[in-house]
Predict the 3D structure of the following.
Amino acid sequence: MATLTIQDAVDRYLDSVKLARSENTALTYKKSIEAFLACLKAEGIAATAPLSKLKEDAVAHFAAYSKDKSPATERLRLQAAAGFYEFLAAEQLADPNLPRVRMLIRQRGRRPGPRLPQFPREAIEQMLDYADGLDKLPAADEVEALRNKRDKAFILTLGETGLRVHEACKLTRGDMQMQEGKAIVIGKGNREAMVRFSSRALAAIRSYQKARAALDGASGRQLGSLPLFARHDKGAGARKVKSITPSSGRNIIARHVALALGEEAKGSITPHSFRHYFVTTVLRGTGGNLKMAQELARHKNIQVTQRYAHLSDDELDRGYYEVFENADPGDD
């Protein structure tokens, strides 16, 4: 029986990738494994060598070999190499120490830097302006009119409190301190916190509650136990006052994004986009006060808040042109 070589195992691995992955992914893996073979060759191990010559340490050499590439390319290469070792184990072609392979990749591979939160700030501001007029739109019936008031209050709340969508959906009327313009919420890690509401959001909530008074009164429940944002389904019984779910909240935003900005904008703004907007707006309005933004956004770690402290491209553009285009040529 012929001895299985590294190249034989590679060929089988790439055939399996072709069957399970897209054509583009298969090509990416092929290029990555070819680079892996080139690395082995540089270390004195030929592709025609017996598979038994392949050790876990090869991934550490491969990470070093890939340092001249971008971090993204390095990650793809190491992912393909890790997949190769997993294939060898699954097909019982070899018995690599997979935990060691993963540990070496974690230790030697570059970690991706934090990604800057991306969101369309101007489009969100358009959405908030649009939401402010939702209750003025003509409605086909009382249910639609009630939904418009709810959606106005919901969108303004997301944009001007920094609440996560599941936090907003869980709010009850009893959580609200309307006179103080605040609410008590249970956030991540089961931590209780105080959230502040803008006067615009509070006015929208009051208007919505007033329109809902008959429905809430007929529910037979304590007002404080009723959801702040309720479902309003046509045909639903008067006693059924149920909270909207996070899924419903996402659907509300998706529907109004399409109505306010056009179908092509669908997906460009999600409930979490409003949280990004909130943190950035606090930073812009306070001259970059990270501690205040951290407290208002309820970030446990200030490093999360720091991700928002980078100037946007349009701000950088403005600053650059103010310096170089508007400067007095005679200035030293």
